[in-house]
Amino acid sequence: MDKKSTVAKWFKNTGFTLSLSLYLLALFVFISFSANVFSSSIKELKNQQITEILFNIHTYYVEDLALQNTTHTSYNNQQFAHLYAQLDPYSKYLDEHELNTLFDNTNGRYTGLGIEVKQINNSVTIVNVVNNSPAKSAGVMAGDIIISVNNQTTQHSSVEHVAQLITASKLSNISLTIKRDNQPQPLNFNVSRRKIKLESVTSQRLDLGSGYLAINSFSNHTLHEVALQIAAMQNHFGHPLKGLVIDLRDNPGGTLRSAVAVSDLFLQNGTIVTTKGRYNEANKAFYAKHGDILKGAPIVVLINENSASAAEILAAALKDNNRAKVVGSQSFGKGSVQSLIPLGDGSTALKLTTAKYFTPLGKSIEGVGITPDVAINQTTLSQSDKAVIIKNQQAKSKQTQLASKVTDLQLAKAKQLLNLQ
Q: Is 0.85 topped by the overall pTM?
């Protein structure tokens, strides 16, 4: 299938959602989230391309933007820049490189270092290091503060600036200088940039025949991974799971189709989500088919302020259908659907917000988020911290200290709720 037909198929299927509540930036090179400034790639567009983009905006964009009493063909660059700037932060023109990166993201493939970063106290701090990634192999750790990239200082820099230094470099090896607690001098790491295949789902067995499932993102493979992980836990116990914790904390989202499919695994019937937009095909309702993979066993869903988009669809679907209790803090509130619209020969595209989604009870999540049944606020836990707590590892070394230091109150409450049901 050529690139043009691939993009066309995406648009036909619609259902692409993306949210970056937590910048997964350095993470894997895909940093398209912006305030919709008039980028250099947009400035270089030809009149024919601008006309095509204008047509799509005024035909499919979720809100009706005025054309300023002029025709598409008479738009000058300044007028086009003004209109383009009115789009929401999730709508963006994608050049060939950005489009290819987006396809890789949705298929669970990323090019980068394997680090997840966040702005903390005016410092760009690594909050997670992906297993089997170049950064992990090099010895980079969660909690490290990036102070320079390729000998260019990043102190007091934004996350976007650090991402640009990493992604714009033509070098295959990136030099990171980091500040680490309990280390008197900065540490230097040479980290190779390469393709990373991520598992979107991980699991652990809990006591009393229950399971823990962490969904880190929603890609084209997530449904398959969820089913495999549940089957593996049930095979170990020799019987169906007696309960399940679904951890959606720090899950930034992914495809709408994936979120709907995973929701359907746990529901016998009912509405999963509805979408509403300006053109006919944007107005859809998704319903659960008969069959619950857990056969009615209780579910507790964990969310936090970084749970967004597709993660919120799953949480709301299980909550509104009385299939699960939701524990944690208010979620991010990203309730819009982005569609890929091919442009020209299909080597570029417009990622455009074409609809907003609503929970089974008809509530919009945009700017509001999901309210948990049991509110418990706590700081974000890294994956390694979660592993220590979930496995109840007790040792005489650092693991015991870590477990006591980062007690997962939300997970403890989820276990308690499962035992009471």
A: no
